[in-house]
Design a protein that fits this description.
It comes from Acinetobacter populi. The protein is of the alpha/beta class and 279 residues long. 44% of the residues lie in helices and 13% in strands.
């Protein structure tokens, strides 16, 4: 089993789109694939399971979800108090873990653990109780059930992102070509290196995925050249902009299921092959 975290502290770089479309191709290729959505915006959850409505002001709630897992991790200590919680833990049944919050998607071999809008409300108590390794331990128990796991993270370096980096084998970094993204990338890499040094010495940066790449424009080409001069692992396959991505979101159909022969779908397949080392 390989666990990949898709991470960028900058929002709007296509993180959820990349997560879901790579996972969908993984599933089509026959890998038993799981997406874990840690972003309270729940974009990956909606993309895979549906329920999105552009006219609605509220996010759909998929139950059970990752909030329930972390709620179990903290054991409602705030409500019970330390002693009550300890007694409750001794008397309660075996923890359900991540297995209890997995949803089978409409697509073969593709499952998802949805996010929840109130996920951030648990962050303080999770940090104060030093639960940073719980996600890693729970993911290890899924080894017999999945071949590939993709984790979508919030656009911030917080408890949930750090938990994902600790749990992952590899990091995929979505990147859009502007000066601010370049600066943010350097900070991101510092955080990944620190996480590897302090928590997960097996973690590696698998590569930078250039998204919304306009090959005819001068600035994107210059920025990509600079990244490579800085010896950053930029994938050769770069994702172009396309209006079909919005249609894919609206219909809750990953590109491989919406229009497998479309240029962007084929580019995603090429990127997947490059990531997996498939010739």
């Amino acid at each position: 089993m390989i666990t990949r975290v898709v991470f960028n502290q900058k929002g709007g770089v296509g993180k959820s789109s990349i997560t879901v479309n790579l996972a969908a191709i993984s599933a089509v290729q026959g890998y038993r694939t799981l997406v874990i959505d840690l972003d309270p915006q729940s974009n990956s959850s909606q993309y895979i399971l549906g329920g999105s409505n552009e006219s609605s002001q509220t996010l759909p709630t998929f139950n059970p979800n990752i909030y329930n897992f972390f709620e179990e991790v903290v054991g409602n200590t705030q409500a019970k108090g330390l002693i009550g919680s300890a007694i409750g833990s001794l008397l309660s049944s075996k923890p359900k873990g991540l297995e209890a919050v997995i949803h089978q998607s409409p697509f073969a071999n593709l499952s998802v653990i949805p996010a929840h809008a109130e996920l951030g409300a648990l962050e303080h108590v999770l940090e104060s109780k030093h639960k940073i390794y719980k996600l890693r331990d729970a993911i290890k128990k899924l080894d017999a059930h999945f071949d590939r796991i993709y984790i979508d993270t919030p656009p911030a370096f917080n408890f949930f992102t750090l938990s994902a980096l600790i749990a992952a084998d590899r990091v995929l970094i979505p990147f859009d070509c502007d000066v601010f993204s370049h600066r943010a990338l350097l900070t991101l890499l510092e955080n990944v290196v620190e996480t590897r040094q302090d928590h997960n010495d097996q973690l590696s940066v698998e590569g930078v995925i250039v998204n919304q790449f306009q090959s005819q424009a001068k600035l994107p080409r210059e920025i990509v050249t600079q990244l490579r001069q800085d010896q950053l692992p930029v994938f050769a396959t770069m994702l172009p902009p396309s209006v079909i991505m919005k249609e894919s979101h609206i219909k809750n159909l990953p590109l491989i299921h919406l229009a497998a022969d479309h240029k962007l779908s084929q580019t995603y397949r090429q990127l997947f092959n490059e990531i997996e080392g498939i010739q």
